Structures are given as C-alpha cells and as structure tokens.
Amino acid sequence: MNLKMKIKKGDQVIVLSGDDKGKKGEVIKAMPKEGKVVVQGVNLVKRHTKASQASAGGIITKEAPLAVSKVAICTADGKPSKVGYTVKDGKKARVARKSGEVID
Fold first, then answer.
1. Domain residue spans of the chain
2. What is the reported pTM?
3. Model confidence at 1, in pLDDT bands (50, 70, 90)?
C-alpha cells in the first residue's frame, strides 16, 4: 500500500463509515505501510488469550486497526476535515482544509 498518510499518532479523528461512524478518538498508532490507524475506543474486538506468566488470560477487549480512509481529522468545532499542507516561514505545516487552522 505505502501511501502518504496525513494522519499521525496523537491526532484527534472522527470515524466516517462503518459500525463506529461518528465516534471520535485519538490515534494511538499509525501504520503507513498498511494504510491503517488504531484509534482509542474505536473498532473494539474481543480476544481470547491463554494464561501465561505475563498475563492472567481470559477475554480481552482491545482496539483493532482501521483503514485510514475511514477516518478524518477532527477540527476544533468537532467536524471532519481533510488535511492540506502550507509553507510558512520556510516550515511545512499541516492545516485543516475546512477551517484553515494549523493542526500540529
């Protein structure tokens, strides 16, 4: 896949489609090679784990990766926006296309 991802770890995003449509959360992990992101509290799955010395085992609920095309940056007013780039004072910055506000 290896596409240029405009969403990074720590960004506030909103889910655009699927079972979790409309949910907001922070990006925990970005995987640009797969074109996926892991968002806190979104796309929860249950895993049955065997007990080991490190953990007690049982049924664990955790976040699964989500396609980056299904999420968008959340602006200050809580609406989704695409990400653009602008150069100011020789520095490249990410901006929300809807409002024009700097994301970083």
1. 12-96
2. 0.85
3. low
